[in-house]
Amino acid sequence: MLTHLSVRHFATVDQLELEPESGLTVISGETGAGKSVLIDALSLTLGERADSAVVRPGCERAEVLASFTVANHAQARAWLEERELDNGDDCLLRRTVRADGRSRAYINGTPAPLADVRQLGELLISIHSQHEHQALLHRDTHRQLLDNFAGASDLAASVRNAWRQWQQARQEHDQALTGAREQNERQELLRFQLDELDALSLAEGELAELDQEQQRLGHADALIRLCQQSVAALYDGEEGTCNDQLGQIRHWLEEARDHDNALSEALDTVESARLQVEAAAEALRHYLDRLDLDPERLAQVEERLGQAYSLARKHRVRPEELVEHHQQLAREVDTLEHFDEHLEALAKAEQDAQEHYMSEARKLSKARKTAATTLTRQIATQLKALGMKAARLETVVEDDSPGAEGLDLVEFRFSANPGQPLRPLAKVASGGELSRVSLAIQVICARNLTVPSLVFDEVDVGVGGGVAEIVGRLLRELGEHAQILCITHQAQVASQGHQHWQVHKIQGKSTTRTRIQPLAPDARVEELARMLGGVEITDSTLAHAREMLEKGQEVA
């Protein structure tokens, strides 16, 4: 629920702090005192579009912070954790608007796009006012309310999941069918390409070996000459070979060692070098024995390399990828040859997914239609109690094409006056009617609410007397299941609040400031007396207000 609201430099507010508690908090004040400023500020933190006009004159920016506790709100916690924005049991929404119109939004201190802020805000709090963006203007809200009332939210989620699975299976089947129509042509092409690669039959690693052999055969004459020169210089020359020189050095060092044994290590090293020279010469002689000038073999190697490189260009792959490409084509040909079996499996998967979806969707439709009758009847009872005796509201569940939300179109249809046909709620209900319809529905659905905080902006417009008292009782009843903030002009509503806050203006010569303060019991009596009307507040008015407050607080 909302635990703290801080507003700075917003419209007529220079600085304001509000800490709502659970239950029903009523907010009252003179007309024009700035009660709507609270709603506007809260809406801003929930992702409403910003306007530089909200920045208090003479200030650089307006800032609004709204703190919520999400300790018992699994859906909001999951949303935050999924985006790595979680901060334990707390959630802080912050919004700033500069005088030049630029604005920024933050979730737990991290900059966030408005779309994310709005999405999270819808999980945390719902504002019910007389504005066109109100939730009841959208069919999606009607469907969600009905599903909540029917206790079918989990079933609705199952339907959405089944729909996704069906659509995925259908897409895979459709793609396969499209491929089937092109199968013969594709298979013929692949078979031709595969025959070429089969004829070449290039082995794994063979290309690198052929490259190396081609290099050796192509330079055999140079290799023979260089290796022969090396053998002669190392060992087989007539005079002055490395072996001869190392032998002479060994002889000198042996004679010198007789005079100083410290030369033994140097002598051993020279002997080791002589033996390595002998080994190198032997290795070169063996290499020369195996190395022949073989033009015929060279031609064979170059021809095979040419075939491999030509096929690589033709298939548009690198030469070293030719073996893998060959294997891939073989697998694809094998798949095409067994395509009928693959197609049958995909068709079966699509059919099973469709049947599962239809089964779940029909269960949901049945639950909705059963609940719609009960919800319509209960709403009618509440509307009469709210002074809308001639109003009718019907929860319509009509067949619709299959979709992610099931097989139904769910819509609240409303008629405010006798003789008028039922029409979509958004098209015919006035602001005050819409607020009271919303109140009636929310009270009925209170035990299934997923949004922990509700704000009602002047839900009592157009009512008074006994009806206003009933509105207050309903709001108080709703406050037993959710946190309620209600802006009201009716004393009968205000007397039902668990807490009462008063908004007032302080006007100076050049500035106007909005203030809000909690009211103690005596101050509540005075505010209720003011709301009851009259230029002068008399003792009888105060007595009436005190009695109204006592009676309101006795309501269970």
Automatic annotation (TrEMBL):
Instruction: Kindly give the InterPro entries that the UniProt entry links to this protein.
Output: DNA_recomb/repair_RecN, P-loop_NTPase, RecF/RecN/SMC_N
Domain RecF/RecN/SMC N-terminal: residue ranges: 1-509
Q: Which residues form a coiled coil?
A: none
Note whether DNA repair occurs among the keywords: yes
Any GO molecular function: ATP binding
Enumerate the NCBIfam families for this protein. PRK10869.1, recN
UniProt-recorded name of the protein: DNA repair protein RecN
Q: Which organism is it from?
A: Alloalcanivorax xenomutans
Task: Show the taxonomic lineage.
Answer: Bacteria, Pseudomonadati, Pseudomonadota, Gammaproteobacteria, Oceanospirillales
Supply the gene name. Answer: recN
